Each structure stands twice: as structure tokens, then as C-alpha cells.
Amino acid sequence: MADYDLVIIGSGPGGYVGAIRAGQLGLTTAIVERTDLGGVCLNWGCIPSKSLLRNAEVLDLYKRAEEFGVSFDNFKYDYSVAQERSRKVVDKLTSGIASLLRKNKVTYIKAEADIVDSKTINLKPSGDSITADRIVIATGARASSIPGLAIDGNCVITSREALALRSVPERIVIIGGGATGVEFAYLFNAYGSEVTILEALPHLVPTEDEEISALLERSFSKKGISVFTGSYVEGAEIIGDKAKLEIDSEGKKTILEADCVLMAVGVLPNTEELGLERLGVELSGGFVKVDTSMATNIPDVYAIGDVTGIMLLAHVASAQGVLAVERMAGMDVPDLNYATMPRATYCNPQVASYGLTEKQAIQEGYRIKVGKFPLIASGKAMAIGEVEGLTKIVTNEDSEEILGAHMIGSEVTEMLGELSLAMLLEGTSREVGRMVHAHPTLSETIKEAALSVDNEAIHI
Hints:
The protein is α/β, with parallel strands linked by helices and 460 residues long. The protein has 14 helices and 24 strands. It folds into three domains: 4-142 and 268-328, FAD/NAD(P)-binding domain; 156-265, FAD/NAD(P)-binding domain; 349-452, Enolase-like, domain 1. Helices cover 31% and strands 27% of the residues. Strands 1, 2, 3, 4, 5, 6 and 19 form a seven-stranded mixed sheet that branches. It has a five-stranded parallel sheet with strand order 8-15-9-10-11. It has a five-stranded antiparallel sheet with strand order 20-21-24-23-22, sandwiched between helices. Strand 20 and strand 21 form a beta hairpin. Helix 1 runs parallel beside helix 9.
């Protein structure tokens, strides 16, 4: 008889959520973690970065104080205090996860896992072994770099080192204009850094709707953030503790100098030294290949989260963890629909979306109608002084089905739930437009955008 029904390797948002669900379902479960409980997301990713971004938002608001009739002398701010606050938030949440694991009778083992076979795991450095009926790989991923510019943790850093900084760099170049890149660009800019952000594709946040990306670029330019899209690093030189980069921006050569370079160009899967080759687990580009139940090609071995490379988002990892465990328990649950997974970026203005962009919908052959509502026409946005942004809904002209929703503005990430629920329930733009929303709220922009699909918006 195995020691456990299930052993999960990795305690990030996929691993610990899957472990808790397994405990709820009565499976004897252990979670093996080599570093910090909660994984990168909790310790050096989602949570500390959002804590720091909140500090940046408060700082931005103070800078606008006179707009609200507030004035003061000797304005001071200290980034080190913001960093300390972020670590306190992490500590509280880490202890909370440990408590939840105990509550659900999940055994927490701090060790490095080496998979011997589909039922056996060696624990390093102790040399002990544990057995399980099923194994879940939830080891996540780490930041990657680009050729010719190695990460040294000092001048060339990843988000991990960026979150540990006690002061902001005077000049920073951020390579990569996805969610991580734009969040740090906003953060460091708010605290006074001279920020330049490079993106190889034509727009920042390149997976988002192009109209939303363009609005973010405009907003960043107003804040003094230099944005280079369609740009590549052609050469790099580290001189002492400074970096000198040669940039090709759509054929134009530019030299950039910086005190720090932040790599935000993607990730590499943490699949080394796990014993996966020995086991025969099939990989693709280093990522673990799985089916719709999160099962690998080896019976009773599963993988969830970033290590699969499917969709590198914490909430997706959690959903995968729950799905895998429920399928193991014999529950009849539907496959995950990755096309409708919500996406959230927490710079200011925030970017939030799900589903198809306008361009993608057209490429897939849909006849579409689009509804838009600018935040500047929202009473609540005007009242709180946050009028920058747009809510946009893309629909199937034939069925009124919502194909995608795209938002940019203050706290728009909090409005994703309504649209996700509407899509889950196969709601239409007309039904969303008929919903009565409390006034004044930012969520009224969803109603107005839905009405705008049929040119029936009231307030514009």
C-alpha cells in the first residue's frame, strides 16, 4: 500500500490548491516543496508585485493631491518601506496556506523531489523515499533571457531580484512588454526611475486587443515611460555595474545606457533534475505535455501550471489543479476552456480581458459587431478622477454571443467576473445590456458597451 493517494511536487497556486482540493475529497495527500510554500506566485511574483503596485498607486494619487483640494509640504516617500510591506503581506499569506494544508490533512514536506518511477519519489537531501498512487508535477517555471545578455542578478535581473530591491534604479531598461514588463515599468516610473521598455512585437501587451494596447502605450508615454516596440537588442555590454545596449527599433539604431536591465521576455520550465527523462515523460520544448485531464503519457503521472506551458497564469494553474484532482476522484467535470480564461495586468491603467480580440475574431471567420464605452463618459470614473480607459465587447453578429471583452482603466480587473459568468452561462451582449447595474459604478461601462453593440448606449 502506498504512503499517499497523491503526492504533488511544487506548492505554487496549482500545487497547493490541488492539494487542498484533494484533502477535501478525502485523498491522503502530501505536497513536496524545495523552497518556499506558495511557490513563485506567492513569494516572488503575483502577491508581492501587487503589493508594490498598490504603493505606486497611492504615491500617484498623492502626486495628484491638489486636484482633490489637498496640499502639504515636505512630501516624502520611501521605496524600502513599500518593499517591507510587500514582504509582510507575503508572510501572512504563506502562514495562511500552511494553516489551510493542515486543516485539510495535507502533509507538507520540505525537500527536493527526484521521481524514481510513477509510484516512488526520493527526497533530497535526506535520501528518504515516499510512495504514491498518483504524482502531480507542479514545479512551475523561471525567467529566461536573450542571447548575449546573461542574467547576473545584479545589473541584469529578473522579476525575482526586482522584487527584492530596496531602492529603485535611476535608469532601467525593461526587455519585454508583456504583463510583467508593463507592471514593473509602471512601478519604477511612479517611484522616479527613468524607464525604457522594449518589446519585439508591434505593441505592448501584444496578446491583448490592439486598441487596448495602443491606449496603454499612450498612457505610458504621458507618464514619461519610453516605449520602443518592434525593437530588438542587437548588442549588449556590461561595464562595471552599468549596461550599454544597442537597439534596433524598426531599422533605427539606438544606444541605451542603464543602471539595471530587467528581463521580462518569457520563462523556462522547471523540469530538470526531476527524473522525468528516466520516467519517460513526454516533453515539448521542455514543457510537460498533458491531455485535457492534465495527465501525461505515463499512467498516474500528471502535470499542472506553468510547467505545462499551456497558459502561464496563476488562476489557470489553480483551475488545472482542481480539475486534475477531481478527475482522479472520479468526478465528471468539464474540460477547461482556455479561450475564455480571464487575463489581468495590474499596471495603471489596468488591462483586463478574456476571449477573442477583434482581430482574432475576424481571422476566425466571425461576422462581428463591436461595442465600446469610454471611461470618460462614466459618472463614477469622473467622480473618482480616473477617466482614462475603455470597455470594449466583441460579439458574433449572427448569435449576439460575446466572443471577447477587453478593458483598460482603473480597477478594470475587478470587472472580469461579471463577463466571465456571462460567457459561462452563454449570455449574449443583449442580456448583459439589459442587466441593471448599480449607479454610479465602473461596471456600468460593461452595460453601456454591451448596449453599444446595437447602437443603444444611453450615455454616449
